[in-house]
Amino acid sequence: MTYRLTYRLRRIAAAAIFALAGPCAALASFPDKPVKLVVPYTPGGSADQLSRMLAEGLSRDLGQPVVVENKPGANTMIAATQVARSAPDGYTLLLASNASMVLNPMLYQRIAYDAARDFRVLGIVAELPLVVVANNEVPAATLAEFVGYAKARPGKLNYASVGIGNPLQLATELLKSRTGMDVAHIPYNGSAPALTSLMGNDTQLMVDVVSTSLPLVRERKIKALAVTTSERLAVLPDVPTVAESGFPGFRAATWFGVAVPSAVPQAEAQRLREAVDKVLKDPAFRGRFEPLGLVIQAPRGQADIDAYVQEDRQRWGEVIKANAIKLD
């Protein structure tokens, strides 16, 4: 065999080996450029803080910068639409929530994405437990006592929320249906005016995110009647759950997670899920947010994640249908 023929055969063999190894090499290198985490909220809030610590953890595991891009507006729909239309290559993530993945598709008549079809939720990062709080002048120390007080005054008490179709309003409507009390809805433009109305006794009840109401409860400006989780919270250990208060099976929470376009290849999605799971196991990450009332979640498999989201859709779908809530 001549030298030239041997050389050509070696080149052909090398090319074949490279072609076979190419897909594996490309897969092993993901990600090989910065990843973007689109956050549907303004900088500085609890969701933004969560996303930035999450991005730091993901960056360490993925070996690439994970850049937070704040895209607030339209009740999370601007950010969700952007990610739904992005290239399905694993380089654009969404800080998902039950607003973007569950509520908006059921509430809004015009929406530019289909959450069930366009997204894959890779992980549930944190639940934001809710607390049932009341004005201090109401003569009720427990949720059961408040329900009795309200039933004796049908339609004469008010509850505050941060807007129609907001998870907090829906949670209160769910509580009303389970307890049978008749309390009128007064929507406000944000937590601050809603809580101000509660402290001023313009409204007597509110279901709020724990992290928002916690300082006022500790300062005794409002009182906590119950938490909506299945177990008591470490930040409010003496406050019973709604279920403990005589209404078994009640559970309500908002949540944050990580989602990608559904067409992202399985291998890239799995790599991202592994990175999310590693952050969730990090004691520093858990320790940063749990004192604020956020419950960092344990890693879940994809089937459990899908079941979690579907259960949420069923729970809130019943509330939305029962109250005929539709938004433009």
UniProtKB/TrEMBL annotation:
UniProt-recorded name of the protein: ABC transporter substrate-binding protein
**Signal peptide start and end residues:** 1-28
- The answer to whether the entry has keyword Glycoprotein is no
Keywords recorded for this protein, A-Z: Signal
Per the record, the similarity remark reads: Belongs to the UPF0065 (bug) family.
- PANTHER family of this UniProt entry? BLR1237 PROTEIN, TRICARBOXYLATE-BINDING PROTEIN
Pfam family example for this protein?
A: TctC
